[in-house]
Amino acid sequence: MDSKLSQANLAEKIIELSNLVSKQIGDSGNADKFTQIIEAAKKSDFDTSLSLLIDDVSVLLNADPNESEVSLNLLFVILINLPALSSNSLSSKAIKQISSSSAGPLAILKSLNNFYNLQQIPLVKYEIFDQIATTCIAENLIESVLQPHFVNLLELSSEWELSLEQKQGFFEKLSSAAFDAGLLEDALDIERLLLTKIYSAGSPKSIELASKIIIRLLNQPGYFQFDNLINLEAVHSLSKINNGNPSIEYSILSIFVSGNSSKWVSFLAENSSESISNLNIDIELASYKIQMISLAAIGAQELGKNISYDKVSSLIFENKDSITDLDIELIIIDTIKYGLINAKIDQLNRTFIVTRSIHREFGTNEWKLLSSHLKDWSKSLNDLIPVIQNAKLVAQLSNSSAPAIVEISN
């Protein structure tokens, strides 16, 4: 960018900053160095003077907070008024020095944030943000500082004019950090960006990440939105990866999208325990999740109807003879807890009624089922009309001496 300050003004500000740094250091042994800095500034040798000055600029963060902010903002103003080439290299050096300060993460992050807001060169803005991310990762500040920016990563990366390779590295860094911080949904959103915007579907990177995501989500107790996952092109490419056959990860995902407990049991029987264990799948958890999914599917089919414990036992449990009423009630409660259904349990009659259930897929059969439910609902409303009319008539005649006439409809 073009300089907004004249060379004379730049020299004055560098000398002013040099005096502030020298004062903060308070070591007369550095007098020769600061004399060299000032002389270079007077000769308009800004690269030399600033390079020497930036070596000690981190001490400014240890000053009084107000003085520190004023001094560092002076440095930032100087840097953004330099020619682009000098500004880029010296800004990089300043970012590293500020980040190495012993003043603590909050002071560092505040200074970097101020520099980011003043900076206009796209790649320097990216470098500042990347250092902010690095500091947050090291100090466990991902959720409080970085998370609000995750939704804008694609826009930010375009604003910074990043290459595809730079985007890839940055997104991979943040997805890993989000996952380590326990921000599963954010990590998944960033990985979805990698699969849809960065990696080519079917490429080694895409295959590796798609497979890893499937396993990770299978091992997450509260994750059930597998239909969203299987519709990604990168994930769908796993369906023909082995000479036209699906990968084992895709086969498992397909069961969770459209299969049931019996298909899962058959799959486990047909595949060696070694091949499945090598995937690091929590088999016990996955089995329980598919049982809950199967229970929700039964609920969707029998919405509003009494469902017997025996039906649940026969449809979702492998060893139904050893299943107790408590086992069935616990899985109903867990299925409610994870938001897959709403239901009421009748322990006395060993039944339950599902009033709401998720649909893993919504195709022709689901539309037919919805149509059936709507017809039942419409019929129920029609049956209520005579009751409502009679109630209105009774209300109208309650203040009258005339005898009430109640219509009875078959």
Automatic annotation (TrEMBL):
**Could you confirm whether the keyword Protein biosynthesis appears in this record?**
yes
Q: Which PROSITE patterns match?
A: PCI (PS50250)
One molecular function GO term is: translation initiation factor activity
Start and end residues of each PCI domain: 182-359
Keyword field:
Initiation factor, Protein biosynthesis
A GO biological process held by the record: cytoplasmic translational initiation
Record's signal peptide: none
Give any Gene Ontology cellular component: eukaryotic translation initiation factor 3 complex
| PANTHER family xrefs | COP9 SIGNALOSOME COMPLEX SUBUNIT 7/DENDRITIC CELL PROTEIN GA17 (PTHR15350), EUKARYOTIC TRANSLATION INITIATION FACTOR 3 SUBUNIT M (PTHR15350:SF2)
Family affiliation: Belongs to the CSN7/EIF3M family. CSN7 subfamily.
Tell me the protein's name.
Eukaryotic translation initiation factor 3 subunit M
Organism of derivation: Smittium mucronatum
